[in-house]
Each structure stands twice: as structure tokens, then as C-alpha cells.
Design a protein that fits this description.
UDP N-Acetylglucosamine Acyltransferase, domain 1, alpha/beta
Length: about 200
């Protein structure tokens, strides 16, 4: 659902996909090839939210802020299932793990990886290529070349997903039994270890 709020109508590039069960409200700008999953809430009611090209905000994520703020999720930022971004800015090509929480006025640097369930305190300034884990989140090392290559490859899948959704996603009635010639699911994902072996 796309909602106008106080004269602000969300702007969504035609190449991006916002799931019908997501809610995008007010002062929101969504760039090219972005994916917004079901259950996501991007609330630009109190301030501006900018998603640059190629950003994905997955299922059940929340993006919001305190009044009067403007936040940006930069090009290729990857926000995993259930994460909360509250008044924080995300650097280019960073990854926020599942159910992580990034608090107000934080700056997540370019190509950072924030682990699942991590809690990044308000006003944290995280240098680029940092790997953070824990509650409160701590930097444990620098993100390696192979880790960022793996992350980037995974984000590319999400950047292709909007076109796939526009082409083939449709509401249907369920089948009542398994068909004889049920199509096989394509296997195109590699874990970090599998990715390293391939390289």
C-alpha cells in the first residue's frame, strides 16, 4: 500500500517493486531496482526517507525516524528480514542482518556488515568495511574482500527480483494437490564457504 501523508506522496521508480502487503507512507523516495518485501513499513510521516538505487528492504522491516530527520539508505544497501532502521543512515553496499536494530543518528559506513540480532546504539559512527555483532554491537574485524564480494552477489539477486516480480508475481488460488510435473526450483545461491571455493 502506498499512502499520501500531509501533501507528501511517495515517489517510486517504475523499475522497483513494492509488495502489496508493504506500507510506504509520505515523504519517501525509492530509486531504481529496489525491492520492498511484504510486511515492510517505510514511514515518511515525520521526515524524509531516501532509498537510492538497488536497495532492498526485506519482509517485516521498519524504516522510520524522530520528527524532522532525513535519512538515506545508499546505493545497494541490503536490509535483512525483520531489521529496524530508526533514524539511521546506511552506507553504500552495506548489509544489515536479520532482526538487527540500528538506532537514531547512527552512520553505518560503506560496505559494513551488521550481524543478525545486533543492536547498534544511537549516534554510533561505524567506519567503512566494519563487521559488527552483538548487543550492544561491537566491531570485531574488517570485512574481507571475499565477504563483500559474496554480499554484493547476494544483493544482485535482490536487484533482479523486482523485474521478476513485475513479470511473474500474481495472486492465485492454491492448488489442492501436488501436480505430477511440478517445476523444480532453481538453485542459484551459494553460502560464503561455497562462494569462496568457487572463487
Amino acid at each position: 500500500m502506498i499512502y499520501k501523508f500531509k501533501n507528501h506522496t511517495p515517489i517510486v521508480h517504475e523499475s522497483s517493486f513494492v509488495h502489496p502487503q508493504a506500507a510506504v507512507t509520505g515523504n519517501v523516495i525509492i530509486g531504481k531496482d529496489c525491492y520492498i518485501g511484504p510486511g515492510a513499513a517505510i514511514r515518511g510521516d515525520w521526515g524524509e526517507i531516501i532509498l537510492e538505487d538497488g536497495v532492498n528492504v526485506q519482509e517485516n522491516c521498519t524504516v522510520h525516524m524522530f520528527p524532522g530527520k532525513c535519512i538515506t539508505l545508499k546505493k545497494g544497501a541490503h536490509v535483512g528480514h525483520g531489521a529496524i532502521i530508526h533514524g539511521a543512515n546506511l552506507g553504500e553496499n552495506c548489509m544489515i542482518g536479520m532482526n538487527a536494530v540500528i538506532m537514531d543518528d547512527s552512520e553505518i559506513g560503506e560496505e559494513c556488515i551488521v550481524g543478525a540480532l545486533a543492536f547498534v546504539k544511537a549516534e554510533s559512527k561505524i567506519p567503512k568495511r566494519s563487521l559488527l555483532v552483538g548487543n550492544p554491537a561491537k566491531i570485531i574485524k574488517e570485512v574481507s574482500e571475499d565477504m563483500i564480494a559474496w554480499k554484493t552477489a547476494g544483493t544482485r539477486l535482490y536487484q533482479r527480483l523486482p523485474a521478476d516480480c513485475h513479470e511473474s508475481l500474481e495472486e492465485v488460488e492454491p492448488l489442492r494437490e501436488i501436480p505430477k510435473h511440478r517445476p523444480k526450483q532453481e538453485n542459484f545461491y551459494k553460502t560464503l564457504e561455497e562462494f569462496r571455493k568457487k572463487e
